[in-house]
Hints:
The protein is built from 7 helices and 11 strands.
Amino acid sequence: MWVGGVCRRPPIGWDDVPTWRAVRATGECVLPGQAERLRTEGVPVQDGRVDLSGARFDGFPSNGPLLALKAEQDALAERVSLRDEPGDEPAPPGPIAAVDVAYPSPGVARAAYVEMEPNSLEPTYELAVESPAPFPYVSGFLTYRELPAYAALIERLCGCRGEPGRAPSVVLVDGNGILHPRRGGVASGLGVLADVPTVGVAKKRLCGTVREDGRIELDGEVVGACVANPAIDGGKPIFISPGHRVSVATAERLATDWFRDHRLPEPLWRADRLSKTG
Length: 278
């Protein structure tokens, strides 16, 4: 997605970067005049598609930046706690918070925070903060794109709230917790670094296998649940997993207790809207 966007709108100073040589994995040309330009360079193109058997290039020099990030995620996953707090009992009823990030323009993130009291119909507190978003979207590495936005949000939150009320019992995060190839999604990253209980709520399943009972297994371990709001007839499911300081069962309960009239739990649905509208 990021590569395609850059190729369509190259940044200033990229005049000499051969963005026209980037095609889809199928060989399909998608940029204006791309097929003709490739033909002038001797690249075999037929019906708008490159013959990749003789034209593919993969010898890019790299110091393996994603390998370093994977190592960081592995280390972070070791710090994740799946123990309910306090003790092994479900967390007592209290305020619940939700956070989400949207991207109103290239390179800009808008992180939103919504807080609601149990059984409340409206948020008790809302805040949206914009900050730079230099890291591109890379599947499995959402933490590095969104965590800086959440850090800016938390900093502003601490400065704006004045006298704090009861701390939220949990934070619902748009994204995955341990339902992640390295058990370290953005909900886990936020939970570990901020030392708060978090639950990941994703709209798409990144990995794992959904069992008949709705539990999601990854490498033989139950890491989450696939659940649809029963109030929505034929509604799409969401994928719930613990982020930090919450068990799988409690993560599912906390998220589904806030089902109202939408696919997402109510606080997260409101955070999603706030992140898009400011």
